[in-house]
Structures
1.
Amino acid sequence: MEIKVFNVALTQMLPIFKIVSIVLLCISTTLLISACEPSNDLSKPMADTEKEHSQSNQKTSLSTLEIPASEKDKIEAIYGWLDSNTILYAEKKDGTDSRQLMEWNLETNASTIFYQPASDFTEVSISPSGKHVMISSFTSSGKASITILDRTGNPQYSLVIPAYELAFDWNAYQEGMLFVTSFYEDWTYSSYVINAEEQTVQSLDFPQPFAQWDSENGLMFLDWNRNEPALTAPLERKALNDKAEENLMLDVIHFKKVKTTLMTIQVETEKHDRGTYAFYDDTNKSIQSFSVPLLKSFSDWVIPAYDLLEKDKELVTFVPVESKDADQYENKFTLTKMNWETGAQEELMKDMENEPLSCSLDGSLCLYGNQFEKIIDMKTHQIKKIF
């Protein structure tokens, strides 16, 4: 729920560039082409626009949605959803430059203090279930302070590790567990597993700095070659306490693992300007795939912002109207919903900017924008600005 540029040797650090840029653009994960199943084409344009939707006169759940006036001017950042009705954000304390975390309940329209840190913070991340929140900050001496809070905002576990930057992934199979990578000033790194419930931290010798949990004790990762820059990488799996790695598939450009589903993105074999979003169940059996136009940058593929609604088995993402080099692409994007169980697809809104998305746990509302400053009603497609 976030991009940083690292000044390093190209042949050694390009894989990190790839994954960081992918994660930030969406937030994050790779899809296999299956020749035995139909591929759905989602490149057709629509008639309605973001402006038309935002000016809709239809009465919606957003019509009465308004953050308290006393809070609006103090908002510094919005981080995402604690549950389907509650948003976590930061605001300045009255009369100071320090910040505190707030929760805004959309049903009651009440805004209350979630956590008041002793010092300022840099990053905030909410676990997939919304039951834990991680905050972090960095010191001038090259250390990172990490605190994990429970759902009520009470500190559960705190630690300090050497780091100039952090990457992390929540374990959806075990509450309060994180895979964390700390980057040093020269962009070498160390990896850790933090368990807030048991209040432990374990140092790992892990083959890649970016990984995602695929079980309580296992992780998936793209095994980028650090010496030879490439546009694709094999998807691998490794258990925490096992030296062996298992190859899952080749030539992946992005992947995302949620609790019961794996999504991968691959370039199509016969049409190199198109990509296949493929979905697999927890036994790695192919479920569904969708074909979309791809945008290519100088050294990577552009993965538009998306979110996975696991409860409804839906991918919500932005789709370009044509395949092109990213620096020559002048069109906007179509907000599209794809159901990876039924294969159904729905074009929701046209002429949208490719900006980050974060949807509520029930999928009814989505935060939208570079600062999550807007909200989309997914039923009426109305957009409302929060701040």
Note: The first strand starts at residue 40 and ends at 41.
2.
Amino acid sequence: MRAMVQISYGPPEVIVLQEIAKPSPASKELLVRIQATTVGPSACAFRKGNPFMIKLLYGLTKPKNAIGGTEFAGVIEAVGKEVQQFKPGDRVLGMSVKNFGTFAEYKCLSEDSPLAVIPANITFEDAVGVCDGGATALTFLRDKAKLRERQRVLINGASGAVGIYAVQLAKFFGAEVTGVCSGKNESLVKKAGADFVIDYMVEDFTKSDKTYDIVFDAVGKRSFMECRRVLTAMGMYLTTAMKLSTLMQMMWTSLFKGKRVIFATAGLMQNKANLKYLMELTNNGTLNAVIDRRFPLECLPDAHKYVETERKKGNVIIQI
């Protein structure tokens, strides 16, 4: 099979196309022919090995898992003899958060992995797009922040892969939503459901007189100290950025009543129920995929380069 293999940490060019052996499923595994996957900032961070914590966990000199990629949508081609929940021909959405491997034509994984059947009217690309940012947004807003009706939420990076689904989910949960993005993406964020949009090129939301119950920094660009003044007395600052300072602030603020810092390794917290829920919301029109660009598998390095421009809107899809 064809796979994009990372030979070292470094620039996009360290990812090269190779022909490798097609895997075979073990007794409790599925073999999926992948149709679509995604590239986002986390994939770029793992490629670079930055922050350094990535190298500590996944290989000091080169990645332990040479094939990257986490989310995928595809068709089950074969199942192991002990698999009970799925069958060949099922269209599935899934996540491989422990050993990656979705930048390839085939992937084997346990049937206990985060997996869900894709409804018939949802395309592979839309399914994996919603999963890419939607799973993270769901974990932060529903599970960590316990978002309630009529709360005021500000989402920084509202046009990105996490932010655009955070806007849709926050509105679905009944919140008043303010999105922060560039002016050229204002219409996109309003269409997603934002009540208010702030152009960060024109206005600094951290200097506003308006306060929010939740500030969700979906792009890891603004610190807790910057956002603190616009949080309500019991407000929560959520961030997707994995930094030592954030972890220390999270531990410190958890000791007292008042404003809190929350970070979560959202990928490791995913399960079948979450993916099924996302597909239900997509099927009924609550969530809509936002796809910016599509790249064929062999152009994965170009997809990484585009993501690193920080200009993408929603998802970047890899077609396989």
Note: The CA atoms of residues 134 and 165 lie 5 Å apart.
